[in-house]
Amino acid sequence: MIRVMVVDDERLLRAGIRSILQAEPDIEVPVTCEGPQAVEMAVRHRPDVVLLDIRMPEADGISVLSSLLALPNPPVVAMLTTFAADEDIAPALRAGASGFLVKDTVPDELASAVRVLASGGTILSPAVADSVVGGYLRANGHGPLASRLASLTDRERDVLALLAQGRSNAEIGTALLMGTATAKDHVSAILAKLGTANRVQAAVLAHHYGLVRMDPEPAP
């Protein structure tokens, strides 16, 4: 079972997401809470995936994200946002968020996103893609990033394209006829060459430079 924690200041939204995910046979939601309780609840319930509101009146979503990722064996954290052009999306990306979802994501896509995140993949909701890409490029500079991308080998570009589809290392290995450990080594090399801190930042570049079509879930 994939254990999910939902963190949002709106009780009704928390209940709605919980109801949607609990209906899935492979997902459970042992806890939902507001921002100030997030770290305590994560330590107590040890979720695999956290869906975290990026803007909350009593807690800074970026600070909560950083605190969750600082835990031993941290969960995967995806940010929930109401606005596709939310100015906090780029800081959340730099802080290590593994995905971005708008709050009106349809139920089937929400469950699929949780599965992708739990398998080690990344999620970029199409509605927020432009904001994520634009914020990252403004913060890091367009030219240097293009030259870093050009330094990748053909095989690394193949791996990056699959990574940007949300594929896990195991799925990348299967698709490219290599072992999971080899796929992981390629991903590590890609992150080092691009100077990106995590998979979602690398996925942003892949989408921007046309290596892959934006897709919220991986191909079967």
What this model shows, in words?
The protein has 220 residues and is α/β, with parallel strands linked by helices. It is 52% helix and 15% strand. It contains 11 helices and 8 strands. It has helices spanning 11-22, 38-45, 61-69, 89-95, 107-118, 126-140, 142-150, 154-164, 169-175, 180-194, 199-208; strands at residues 2-7, 27-33, 49-53, 55-56, 59-60, 76-81, 99-102, 123-124. The strands form 2 sheets. Strands 2-1-3-6-7-8 form a 6-stranded parallel sheet, sandwiched between helices. Strands 4-5 form a two-stranded antiparallel sheet. Helix 4 (89-95) packs across helix 6, helix 8 crosses helix 10 (180-194) and helix 9 (169-175) crosses helix 10 (180-194). Residues 213-220 have low confidence and may be disordered.
